């Protein structure tokens, strides 16, 4: 027997059946920290960088929102969800680093941790893509779940 919910009694993968779960309000907040470096940060004015591809942070936020909505297409055992809300904030935290915070809200039978983590990741990947002509020394350093509410348990990291 496995403690993993995505493994059946025969040891094969399965999608968890959530039909008996209660519908509750569920939220998840994920954070990604990213090293951009002084070279990239120096190009920002008023917390934004306009490139030939467009405004970096605004485009990254839109990409992160798309990432949240597409999570079940990317991660095989994630349920397709009707998301109630997504909020992504990007902050320059010092002369070399940024953080992307992704909050996802749903009223449903399953949580949105993977969606928040995906949103934070895609936000940073988009920043990398848009700034790679300036520097390819950027690093997505850490992506983690900060908070989860609703369902069986609440988590605050």
Choose one word for the global shape.
elongated
Query: Averaging pLDDT over every residue, what do you get?
Result: 93
Number of strands: 7
Biggest sheet: strand arrangement: 4-5-1-6-7
Structural class estimated from helices and strands: alpha+beta
Order of helices and strands: EHEEHHEEHEE
**What's the alpha carbon Rg, rounded to whole Å?**
18 Å
Main sheet specs: 5 strands, antiparallel
- The CA-CA distance between the termini, in Å, is 29 Å
Individual helix count: 4
Share of helical residues:
25-40%
In percent terms, what proportion of residues is strand? Answer: 25-35%
Low-confidence stretches: none
Topology, please?
Layout: E1 24-35, H1 38-41, E2 50-51, E3 54-55, H2 56-69, H3 71-74, E4 85-92, E5 97-108, H4 113-131, E6 139-149, E7 155-156
Antiparallel strand pairs: 1-5, 1-6, 2-3, 4-5, 6-7
Explain what you see.
The chain is an alpha+beta fold and 157 residues long. It has four helices and seven strands, in the order βαββααββαββ. It has helices at 38-41, 56-69, 71-74, 113-131; strands at residues 24-35, 50-51, 54-55, 85-92, 97-108, 139-149, 155-156. The strands form two sheets. Strands 4-5-1-6-7 form a five-stranded antiparallel sheet, covered by helices on one side. Strand 4 and strand 5 form a beta hairpin. The mean pLDDT is 93.
């Amino acid at each position: 027997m496995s403690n993993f919910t995505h493994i059946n009694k025969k040891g094969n993968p399965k999608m968890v059946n959530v039909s008996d779960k209660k519908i509750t309000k569920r939220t998840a907040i994920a954070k990604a920290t990213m090293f951009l470096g002084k070279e990239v940060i120096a190009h920002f004015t008023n917390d934004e960088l306009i490139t030939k591809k467009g405004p970096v942070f605004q485009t990254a936020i839109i990409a992160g929102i798309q990432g949240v909505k597409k999570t079940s297409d990317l991660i095989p055992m994630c349920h397709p969800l009707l998301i109630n809300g997504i909020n992504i904030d990007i902050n320059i935290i010092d002369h070399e680093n940024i953080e992307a915070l992704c909050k996802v809200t749903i009223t449903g039978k399953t949580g949105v941790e993977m969606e928040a983590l995906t949103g934070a990741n895609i936000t940073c990947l988009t920043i990398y893509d848009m700034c790679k002509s300036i520097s390819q020394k950027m690093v997505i350093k850490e992506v983690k779940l900060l908070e989860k509410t609703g369902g069986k348990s609440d988590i605050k990291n």
